[in-house]
Amino acid sequence: MDRRDFIKVAGGTVLAGTSCTYAFRFLTSSSMSDAGVDSTLAKRKWGMVINLDKCKEDCTACLEACREENNVYHDEDDRWDINWIRKVKIEGKIGSATTEKTMILLCNHCDNPPCAQVCPVQATYKREDGIVIVDHHRCIGCRYCMIACPYNARFFNFKDEEHWINPDRPKRTHGVAESCHLCAHRLDAGKMPACVEACEKIGCGALSVGDFNDPESNVSKLIADNSVKRIREDLGTEPKVYYIGL
Amino acid sequence: MKLEFTRIEGNSFEYRVMMIVFAAFAVAGALATWWVIEKGIWVTGMHNRVPWGFLIVMAIYYIGLSAGSLVISGLYGVFGKIEYKPFARIAVYVAMLFLIAGLLSIMTDQGRIDRFFVQPFVFFNLQSMFSINPMLYIGHILICILYLWALFYEKKKLTKVVATLAFGWAFCVHTGTGAIFGFGARLLYESPLLPASFVAAAMASGTALMILLIVTLFKVMDRYLDDELIFWLGRFLAITVIVVLYFLFVENAYRAYVVELRQAAVFYLFGGYHSLLFWFGLILVGLVIPLFILFNKKGGKSIRWIVLASCLVIFGVLCERYVIVIPGLIHPPELFPGMEITHSIVDEGISTYHISFLEVLQALGVMGVIGFMFGAGLKYMKLLPTEARIPKHPASADS
User: Fold this and answer.
1) What is the mean pLDDT of residues A105-112?
2) What is the pLDDT, as a whole number, of residue B349?
3) Can you say how many angstroms the Cα of residue B143 is from the centroid of all Cα atoms in its chain?
4) Is the pLDDT score of B78 beyond 70?
5) Under a CB-based contact definition with an 8 Å cutoff, are residues B110 and A140 in contact?
6) Which of A86, A186, A170 is nearest to A134 (CA)?
7) Who contacts A166 (Cβ-Cβ below 8 Å, separation ≥6)?
8) Contact residues on chain B for A158, CB-CB shorter than 8 A
9) What pLDDT score does A38 carry?
10) Does a structural domain hold residue B379?
């Protein structure tokens, strides 16, 4: 084989390899889209606004509602306990004064989700309406998404849940990752997420979910009328959970 | 001078004991893995704040150890140092085994091992380092098989082409493995230097392993080995050790210099038992003492001292792999810069992790599998020559 033939063969191989890769990627990515889900999804962009000034310090209604709705595993040992939504107290100093806040943390449903970027099997993906979700039937349990999430919002099913509270929601075996999916099943059915509903039920109304693409939606108005912050905006992940009073 | 490669008989008592021990390790590892699959990964001690443990440490360690082939194929296949031809076969075979070990470790670490054989190949994600790397490993294993075939059948031109390919591919493998962490979101992971320093540490550990294996095998089999070949590898090892030290210095100096990373740097360097591993295991025992040995007039010209230095480097790089993976997870991501989380229902602060007995068994199991394959390779394949000496006429040696 002379040099010219070698270049032909090598070039052809590279071209064929690249084409096959992209063709395969195109085919597999099409299977990742939200087949069977309403095509109007793309028109929406779900997100959340949390008014910390309205949140009661010792209230756990949203946490309990989330656990019950989604069969979120509970373990007595907090190392293996799963909390799709959690409350923390943060403390900072402004001059000599100490400020303390109660925060609600959950998946930020980032527009640039690092968890979806690193998932080797595309089990974690962003729906067209912006909800970041895990396909538990595809997840191989590598836990790279937990490493990549800068918000500690990802959890792993280390153990099997024996007590399933909500029989309408699917069971998950041990060995897969999970996080808040903004109760996508409820939003698709025209209902509010369980945490938002529970918060409203007790009269707090600290949590609001809505469509950021709609300028008339509750969340768009809240953002327009208030000073809002997002957690670690500097990371470029474009979180879709906004905080009033942070 | 034509090299004559031979098998070993494999009938000795020592050989049989070695094979039984490796098989026992493999069985113990398989049983431990079955237990973990059955009960869930929590039995290994990993948890939501430290979701990667000893198996990931061992996976990247094994992958790094395969770099011995990179060095030998670089010397022989790419740079034409024909005196290293005697070691080409064993280097490539060992590289293949350690790549298999790396893949096995990653596989046994998955939450759903049953899906590991299908999903990553059907739904691969070109944006994910964890998706790209297994493809690089499998590609390297295939290249090693082709390389071995070319070496066994003395295909000179093909050997040169495949050696060059293997050399370049190995760089991608080690860079990619380092990138799993270097391109990560954790304070102690994120570093563009990490993939490069991973390559350097891989070359150091790979060279050290080759020295240890070659000297041991030639001694046990009572075959002639030219000391000068090992002296040169010893000098090369010293250079790789210096490069590793340099990268470690720059990386940690950067962390200590940049204000937002300073607190993480203090934690990394002085914050727990991982700091002991860093200073004593890696820096002192794994790098500085070997350097003194290798640059010492007597040590650099003594096979025993070079082997000792190699053992220390192999240990040191294991510590280096540990301090890449674990401290970065124990140290929490900074959610609220300038503020402190004073209360939470989950662990938000500095976490803890201890290697569990089950993880050690799993890692030993992987060693058992490749150890058994190594023993079988020596018995059934002509991996080593009857002698390895520097040819007086290099042109005649490549035949």
Assistant:
1) 95
2) 83
3) 18
4) yes
5) yes
6) A170
7) A68, A69, A70, A71
8) 40-42, 46-48
9) 52
10) yes
pLDDT digits (tens, 9 = 90+) for B15-39: 999 999 999 999 999 999 999 999 9
Report the gap between the CA of B41 and the closest CA in chain A (Å): 6
In chain B, which residues have their Cβ closer than 8 Å to the Cβ of A150?
185, 333, 335
User: How many CB atoms neighbour CB B385 within 10 A?
Assistant: 22
Q: Does B118 touch chain A (CB under 8 A)?
A: no
Amino acid B24: pLDDT? 98
Instruction: Count the domains in chain B.
Output: 1
Distance, in Å, from the CA atom of B58 to the CA atom of B90, rounded to the nearest integer, reads 22
Cα–Cα distance for residue pair A205/B249, rounded to 1 Å: 52
Please state, as a whole number, how many other Cβ atoms lie within 10 Å of the Cβ of residue B113: 16
Does the domain at residues A40-244 carry the CATH identifier 3.30.70.20? yes
pLDDT for the residue A209: 95
What is residue A19's predicted lDDT score, i.e. its pLDDT? 65
Mean pLDDT of B250-259: 93
Looking at the complex, does the CB of residue A147 fall below 8 Å from at least one CB of chain B? yes
Select from B51, B123, B347 the Cβ nearest to the Cβ of A156. Answer: B51
E strands of chain A, at which residues?
Answer: 46-51, 85-94, 97-106, 124-126, 132-134, 155-156, 177-178, 207-211, 228-229, 241-244
pLDDT tens digits, one per residue of A154-191:
999 998 877 788 888 888 888 999 999 999 999 999 99
Q: Looking at the complex, does the CB of residue A92 fall below 8 Å from at least one CB of chain B?
A: yes
Residue B231, in any domain of the structure: no
Q: How many helices and strands, by DSSP H and E, does chain A display? A: 7, 10
The domain segmentation of chain A, as residue ranges, is 1-32, 40-244
Instruction: Inform me whether the C-beta atom of residue A82 falls under 8 Å from chain B C-beta atoms.
Output: yes
In which domain, by residue range, is B362 found?
18-110+125-183+354-384
Query: What pTM, to 2 d.p., does this model score?
Result: 0.89
Tell me the chain A residues in contact with residue B334 when contact means C-beta distances shorter than 8 Å. 232
ipTM: 0.90
Question: Quick one: closest CA in A to B39, which residue?
Answer: A159
